[in-house]
Each structure stands twice: as C-alpha cells, then as structure tokens.
Amino acid sequence: MLEIRPNCEYCDKELMPDAADAMICSYECTFCQKCVAEVLENVCPNCGGGFTPRPIRPKVARRAGVSLVHQQPSSKRVHTKFSQEQIKAFASQVKAIAPEER
C-alpha cells in the first residue's frame, strides 16, 4: 500500500493526500510536478526511474474499510540525499533514455 508521503523530497512543498501535483516513481519517491519537470527532468534522483501522478486515496469509505480514515497517509517527511549539482548531473546522463527503457 502506498505511503502517501507528505512532501516533495526536493523542495519540501507540502503535498496533501489529494494533491493533484504529487508525482511518484515505482519506489514511491515523491516530488511535486514542478520539480519533476524543471529540476529532475523526469528522472528520479534516487533510482533513475520516471514519474507518474500519485494516485489519490478516497477520503470516504465507499467500500468497507477502504479510505484515508482507515489507511492514513505517512507523516514522515523524506528528503533526497543528493545535492542539486548531483541531481542535474545524474538527470543529464539518464533523461534521454525513455523511462520504460531505463
């Protein structure tokens, strides 16, 4: 089950559980759309994968036991360990390769 992390790992922007601009990679690294487009160039600095919009968990249990009330999002803030320079260098090496080919 997705953690639904509360922030962009790069700029620390608050990403509420229903944020339409939250992006994740297959390892759930979480970044805002702006950072994915303008800084990361669709390359996860942690794994090298691409990004997809983070799904939004239902607020109301339309099926028994399945909602934000029952599976709460993470409150643990995560930050990438890589510097801006390291991220740019990594992205420049990987961005020309389509995410499905990485």
TrEMBL record:
Domain RING-type as annotated: residue spans: 8-47
Listed transmembrane segments: none
Which positions are tagged coiled coil?
none
A Pfam short name: DUF1272
Which domain of life does this protein belong to?
Bacteria
Q: Which PROSITE patterns match?
A: ZF_RING_2
Q: How is this protein named in the record?
A: DUF1272 domain-containing protein
